Amino acid sequence: MKAGEGPDDRKGERVVLLTTEPDARRQPLIDAARKAGMSDLTVPGEVLVIDKVPMLGSGKPDLAAAKARAMDAARVKVV
């Protein structure tokens, strides 16, 4: 899993969770946060299931590619 940013009309940007888990959904994250006494603000604004988390040659997550992926997904939803 990897968190990146995506555009948000109200706040400017929001956290988007990128994951390869095909059954990942936002609601269980909200439920877990509430059960732990945490705010819904601690939960990503969107869960985006992808085939593969972008990685650098060094084996670290590619943050720029992750952000671009989140931005692209948001653009697709707007159209």
What can you see in these coordinates?
It is a single chain. It contains two helices and three strands. It is an alpha+beta fold. The protein has a single domain, classed as ANL, C-terminal domain (GMP Synthetase, Chain A, domain 3), CATH 3.30.300. A three-stranded mixed beta sheet has the order 1-2-3. Helix 1 links the parallel strand 2 (12-19) and strand 3. The longest helix is centred in the C-terminal third of the chain and has 16 residues, at 63-78. The protein is globular. The chain starts with a strand and ends with a helix.
**Major sheet: arrangement of strands:** 1-2-3
The number of distinct structural domains comes to 1
What is the share of helical residues? 25-40%
CATH class: Alpha Beta
| CA distance, first residue to last residue | 26 Å
Strand/helix succession = EEHEH
Arithmetic mean pLDDT: 81
